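> example.struct
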């Protein structure tokens, strides 16, 4: 993978990894949680992340190996640097980071905040890859973004409910 410029397939591979890491994080953090509401929400989110893995894996089959979708300039400095920063993030690239984080954190409030931050980063990443995928995949990606936004909302509502932090 080129260190700064990515093909559509490479970006979708990153999306698969993001969703796999989210799946592992929600599974492990849910098992570690003592709060039933957090456990239940994380189980639901893990199931949804698993479905997202399959969607991105299917999209990846049709993505080009050496080019990106028409209309996207892969050499646009901001987009390339942004994608590189996300790709280099431990949460996005290290398979056990979610599990390690869930094991070392003592307060569930911190786990919820980590999950919120993870969802925000995923949403931003998906908005960028919208520029790199086939037109017919844009509707699917839009639905996935909406689901990630719903994850963010549910996590934020639960955080506010349990700990009084405002939305």
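> example.seq
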């Amino acid at each position: 993978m080129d260190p700064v410029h990515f093909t559509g397939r490479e970006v979708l591979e990153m999306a698969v990894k993001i969703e796999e890491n989210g799946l592992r994080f929600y599974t492990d953090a849910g098992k570690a949680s003592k709060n039933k509401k957090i456990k239940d929400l994380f189980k639901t989110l893990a199931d949804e992340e698993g479905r997202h893995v399959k969607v991105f894996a299917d999209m990846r089959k049709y993505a080009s190996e050496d080019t990106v979708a028409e209309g996207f300039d892969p050499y646009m400095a901001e987009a390339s640097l942004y994608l590189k920063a996300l790709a280099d993030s431990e949460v996005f690239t290290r398979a056990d980071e979610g599990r390690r984080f869930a094991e070392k954190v003592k307060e569930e409030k911190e786990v919820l905040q980590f999950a919120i931050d993870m969802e925000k980063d995923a949403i931003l990443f998906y908005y960028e890859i919208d520029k790199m995928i086939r037109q017919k995949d844009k509707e699917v990606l839009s639905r996935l973004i909406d689901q990630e936004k719903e994850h963010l909302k549910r996590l934020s509502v639960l955080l506010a409910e349990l700990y009084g932090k405002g939305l």
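> remarks
The chain has a mean pLDDT of 78.
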